[in-house]
Design a protein that fits this description.
Structural class: alpha/beta
Number of strands: 11
Shape: elongated
Oligomer: single chain
Distance between the termini: 104 Å
Number of helices: 7
Helix content: 25-40%
Pfam family, one: DUF3097_N
Protein name: DUF3097 domain-containing protein
Order of helices and strands: EEEEEEEEHEHEHEHHHH
Length: 276
C-alpha cells in the first residue's frame, strides 16, 4: 500500500496553520494581545536582547510591554503578526533656514565679483547659518572685517562697480554712534551700508531661542560680551558662549526682524543685475 507523500514538511495538510498577515506596529495602531486579552494602542517598538517588543497603552493610560511573537495579536478580530515598521525616509526640507524655497541638488554658483562684508567672525557665522544655502546658489561670498574703523579705505581698495557691488553690514548703526559717522563717509553708488541697532550681533538672536528672558544690560565701560556672560551666570568664555548662542539658531525665526531685513536687503543689492 502506497503511503501518503507529505513532502519535506511531514505535517498533514489539514493540520497546517494558515499564514497570517504581518502588520507594521505603527504608532496609534490598536491591537489586542492574544494571551492576556490586553487591548491598547501602539506607543513604541524597541529592540531588546530577547527580541523586538511593543508597548501598548489601554484606554485608562496603562502601559504594558509584549514580545512581538508570530500570531501574537488580534487586529479587528483577525490574528496578525506585528513587525517593526520600516524607518521613514527623512523628508527633504522644502525651505532653507532663511525661509527661501530649497533647490535640491543645486550646485554653488561661481562667486560673483560683488561681496558682502560684515564686522566680525560671529556676524559671518550667523549669516552663514541662516543664509548659507541662498548665498551659495547666488554666488555671494561673505567676508568679515574685524571692525569697521577703516571702512572707507577698505571700500576704496575693493573698487566697487555696477557689476561688482559691495554690501556692508554694520553693528550698532544708530544715529550719533561712531559706526554711523564712519558709514556716512562711504558714498559710492555701488556700495550699500546698512546696519542693525544692536551693540553686538549676539543681541540679534531672539532671547527665547537662547532660553533667556532678555539680553542683559551691560554698564558702559565694561566689555559687553563678558558682561553678558557674567549677568547670565555663564562661564566667562565668550567663544564658548557664542557657540551656545549659534547652536540655538535653526532658522530665520530665531533672529530679530531688524537683522533679517538688512541681510535680505544686502543680498538683493549685490545680486541685482548691472544696469545698462
Amino acid at each position: 500500500m502506497r503511503s501518503r507523500q507529505y513532502g519535506p514538511d511531514l505535517t498533514p495538510p489539514w493540520k497546517k496553520t494558515a499564514p497570517v498577515p504581518e502588520v507594521p506596529a505603527e504608532a496609534d495602531l490598536v491591537v489586542e494581545e492574544v494571551t492576556t486579552g490586553f487591548c491598547g494602542a501602539v506607543i513604541r517598538c524597541e529592540k531588546t536582547a530577547q527580541g523586538p517588543v511593543v508597548t501598548l497603552e489601554d484606554r485608562f493610560g496603562k502601559h504594558r510591554v509584549f514580545p512581538m511573537e508570530p500570531r501574537g495579536f488580534l487586529l479587528e478580530g483577525r490574528v496578525v503578526t506585528l513587525v517593526r515598521p520600516s524607518p521613514a525616509a527623512a523628508p527633504r526640507p522644502t525651505r532653507t533656514a532663511s525661509g527661501s524655497v530649497a533647490v535640491p541638488g543645486a550646485r554653488a554658483r561661481v562667486a560673483r565679483a560683488g561681496r558682502i562684508y560684515v564686522e566680525g567672525r560671529h556676524d559671518a557665522e550667523l549669516v552663514e547659518r541662516v543664509w548659507g544655502d541662498d548665498l551659495r546658489i547666488e554666488g555671494v561670498v561673505v567676508e568679515y572685517l574685524e571692525g569697521i574703523d577703516d571702512l572707507p579705505a577698505i571700500v576704496a581698495d575693493f573698487a566697487p562697480a555696477p557689476d561688482a557691488r559691495l554690501g556692508v553690514l554694520v553693528d550698532h548703526l544708530v544715529p550719533g554712534s561712531k559706526e554711523s559717522r564712519i558709514a556716512a563717509q562711504v558714498t559710492d553708488a555701488s556700495v550699500l551700508v546698512v546696519g542693525h541697532p544692536y551693540i553686538d550681533v549676539w543681541e540679534a538672536v531672539k532671547p527665547s531661542a537662547v532660553g533667556i528672558r532678555a539680553w542683559p544690560r551691560v554698564p558702559r565701560g565694561q566689555d559687553w560680551k563678558t558682561g553678558v556672560c557674567r549677568a547670565l551666570n555663564w562661564p566667562e568664555n565668550t567663544g564658548a558662549a557664542w557657540q551656545r548662542i549659534l547652536a540655538s539658531v535653526h532658522s530665520y525665526r530665531d533672529l530679530e526682524p531688524a537683522l533679517l531685513g538688512r541681510v535680505e536687503e544686502l543680498i538683493d543689492f549685490v545680486t541685482a543685475p548691472a544696469e545698462g
